[in-house]
Design brief:
Chain lengths: 475, 390
Amino acid sequence: MHVGVEAIGTYVPSGRLAISELRQHWPGVPTPGGVKTVTVAGYDEDIVTMGVEAAEAALSGVTVASVDLLIVATCSSPYTEHSAAAEIARALALEPTAAIVDVAGSTLGGVNAVEIARGAIVAGNATRVLVVAAERRRGAPGSAVEALGAGAVALLISSEATSTLGPSVSYRHGVPTRWRSESTGVLRNYDDQRYELVGQIEPALKGVLSQLAPGATQLAVGPLDVRSRTALLRSTNFDATDSSFDFSQTGELGSGGPLFDLAGVVTNQESVLVACVGVESGSGATGFTLDVNGPIRVTAHLPEPTPISYVEYLQRFGVIEGPMPPSPIVPYAATPGAARSDLEGSLTGARCVACQSFNIPPRRLCVDCGTSEFTFERAVRFGEVVTFNVQHVVAVHPEPAPVAVGVVRLKGETGSRGGQISAMFCDTKLDELKVGTAVKIVYRRLGVDDGLVKYGWKVRSVTDSSDEVTPGRLS
Amino acid sequence: MIGSGVSIVAASMVRFGERFESSYEDLMVDVWNALLADPEGDLTPDRVEAAWLSTALGGLIRREAVTGASLADPLNFYPRPVTRIENACAGGSDAIRNAAFAIAAGIYDVVLVLGVEKMRDLPTKASLIAQRGTMSHLWWHPRGATSPYLFGQHATVMMEQGRITREDMALVSVKNHDHGVLNPNAFMRKPVTVEQVLASPPICEPLTVLDCCPTTDGAAALILCRSELAHQFTSAPVELVATGLATDTMYSHTKPIFGEQAGPTRAALDAYKMAGIAPSDIDVAELHDCFTVAELLAYEDLGFCERGGASAWLRSGAPSLGGSLPCNPSGGLLSKGHPIGATGVAQLCEIFWQLRGEAGERQVEGARIGLTHNVGGNGQVTCVNIAQRM
């Protein structure tokens, strides 16, 4: 069955980090050859949002309900577990019955996704497939691979296309010279460019090209950098390749690289046979041919560049934290509020001069008689349980359930509404707790919000004679 | 009578429950459309001059600061006035109360009262049970109390005093679930047994899951009008004859006593006085049974039985369908559900249908006077409304 590429959309974000700035910060560290800037995703961009931009470009004028398979290739999904393809499918309004596939873990993913798409159509499992390859990665600071590009490319593949996709071929070769693990988080490299290019990449590329159908005049390849790409084209006799995609402005684009290059090669081409090959050191290479017969619609989204400083670059990746956002929790966390914090923090109450009711926490108007003249005293440390419940849900994190909460009448205290406190229980055998149980009032942590520890008073059952402590007097 | 007379001429509610398929706005439009679809009268959207919206979690969950507009927008109600009432779980009844006052003051002839809540988009443990926002009073927020504690603290004392037993509380759940089975708009439409209530997972001992109302999505709405105009809209209007609202101390530790509540009692006394009736005149009541013990407290606070008599009154069958004063024929909050802002409105919807003889299998025969009892917090605010068949 005939399968080809109908349309391609590309998107790169507007942010640009100048390699020249990187050189100032890390003098003596090699930078990607021939690359002037790398594209930097915004704070609000990731492979999902960029993938949607590229996909919308590829789907321009197309009935989205006709897409029955979406394949997303990336090494930089926002999720280690959860489908990025599902997020993209939602934004594109794909039918719920459209299959979604995530291809992750290798920069060969973009090229492999094209083969999965072709295979699904040939097998009759799909009629129109959208392939998205997108990256937003970062290398180790101060290393030759620190600056990597960000962007997304989308290919619309079906049997309706005028172009023809050939079956993919692979060639496994070599050892990894670039890798990224969960523990490092950033791309690391074996810092020997010749070992990587000549020892790993070039043999893999040649291994694939020797298996592809002959006659390709143009080579689309995801380059390590611009200079390496030129060298690879020369060593494989494709140095007449004419791609309009400018990697000197974007830097390396991971699993999207060869497909971006493919978009650059087929733009404005009526008839050409292209070999498109992805290469990854230590994995080898995978490639396919695309026989172009009539123009393929290519929509490249290239926003006006915005210079990004190295500091902002690091902020965007969360390496350094910028100004912290205001937390809505903090005003609660400041309970009981700045105005009362010393009084409540020291368990100080207000004794009503008129009726002797012990108002705790202190109030402006006596809770029992409504007058407003008080003297301040620290509360006794003993009391009796008035009522309580054992809760199996805890509102103060990170304490485990079950926990008791209740009301305690302070020993010897006066007042009808005064003389009592509300508290959580700690260090108490819950099955022995009763109305009337004697308790000691103790200072504990009352939870943490946004890292801010709240301290305050809890109660526990009286255990031994060391509990016979009276609070220091105020005067 | 409130002013020169305020009547209820239309009522609607959506099926309460886990309404994952409907948005907050969808629920509002559903009850609004249902009001306008009433084939009986000539209620058209333009006859409604103003609206009162009751929602509690609109602010806490949705972080809404402009909730008047959140009703005006989906209903295309703008530029007409919309006032949001937020008075904890009593907001629905307080919205009715304030809408009635606006009519009584002669400002409007016809108004909408709509209560709505979308609670199940949060995990249930984050919604009502553990929602610290609802407990954000300065002395509660860091002290670990959750909503069930607000009534659990009364249960502990009432059991300690020997006034109620654990089984009494379970029997409230059994009764209200039995009633809810008969209500097509109820959330939990399955009967439960005492044994099941006792054996269900503990939440806030002695309360178990089946002593607690479910976290619920829902909406309910009423059209109120000046009584003189009521027959333009329906042949069987119901008059809102009285309303009482009372507050109580904010904190548990400033309560002088547990096992009785001054606020609900005061709200009821004010309403009885305004209506010129006694508790014995009431034919049907919708009570705020957010937790089983709350209904037992309500029997005593409202004067349905004497103080200390809740257990005996419940076991006499008086508050069951067929009894002398059926309480929560709708299933109550325990079975019908408790979408906070909608609850007070839905309670009066039930009374409206009961007084018009439209309550189907759960109809209280010959009901002429009905009461709603709607409690916020553990009685920090309580609103009691009374309606009468005209």
